[in-house]
Amino acid sequence: MTSPLLRTAVATALALGALGLTQPARATPSDGVHTVRVPDGDPHDRSLAPRTTEPFSLIGVTWDDPDAALDGTVQVRTRSRVSGAWSAWRPLDAYSRTPETGPDRDRAGVRGSTQPLWTGPSDGVQVRVAGSRLPEGLRVELVDPEGGSDSVHTAVVEPGVVPPAAGPQAAERPAMTSRSAWGADESLVEDPPTYTGNTKAVFVHHTAGTNDYTCSQSASIVRGVFLYHVQSNGWNDIGYHFLVDKCGTVFEGRAGGVDKPVLGAHTYGFNTATSSVSVLGDYSTAATNAAVRASVAKVAAWKLGLYGIDPTGTTVLTSGADNGKYELGQKVTFHRISGHRDGYPTECPGQHLYDDLPEIRTLAANAGKQAEPAAEPPGLLDEDGTEDVAEGVLGR
Question: HSE of 147 in the Cβ direction (CA atoms, 13 Å)?
């Protein structure tokens, strides 16, 4: 005779199956990322039925071949842990590309990927992917920024003014939240940073996620992007050099020294000799505000000012890859402060933020000024201890 407990368990399992809700996807609890494989099948249409998952707040989709393009659309629905309600279908931007050079490309396990999407606290997911050419090994990446290292901190560090570089375009370094303050798990960064000869331009991005976040959540979003880039994409570190939230807070991105020419992973074909700043949010749908524009301008003015560069000028860069917009070896003239779409076929950084770039260049030019050197208080971002690099290590 079947026991009442067993009958209840069977009935519950059947009910969940009818709803398409499976048991949670499990993964190592310390890495902050768990994955769900999208079933293979139709080469033009694949899906993941709605299911219960481990907690997550950021989602993306990756695939096996980092050089394969996903010629199609990726849409996700997620279930709120707070209300239990399912979201509307939301698209994932599929323009994230593995860098054309450096350790982020050469590492084992590098994967192709969409851009991640911040969902807020969630515990359920449904996915559908459609297109004329879908890559193999599609995998849903569920990132829990609070589920990684126990050494996570979220306090904001406000560095004092650092003496600006010599030259007519020098600008003060903006206050920024350090990696330790937003909770970067440095044990996940396996290789030392790679340096280029200098910094000739700054590319402006947006993360293309939701604008519906509070600024108290910004450190978690940055930490989620870091985990996605490292654990899901297989990169060595977060791709962006700096990030800015909608309140204008600046976050230190890729390690290696904010004042050093660190090779990033942000603009496929033009990562060498450039820097990057990404604004949290989707600026295809939302307008920026004065705080965002001012912070992006301050970052660009300071970074370019280290090399005596006028942020309103132009420079010629050589494409390091056939990226769908430019051919390998093609010389291209860019504004010193350019949008991601200027170097790569994408809508990033969104039409609103892209339209703000002329104003941002003007603000950056006004930020360039001489300042009296000020003593740096203790406990701030380390400006020393990073090796000096010979000019032109990876070319220009």
Answer: 21
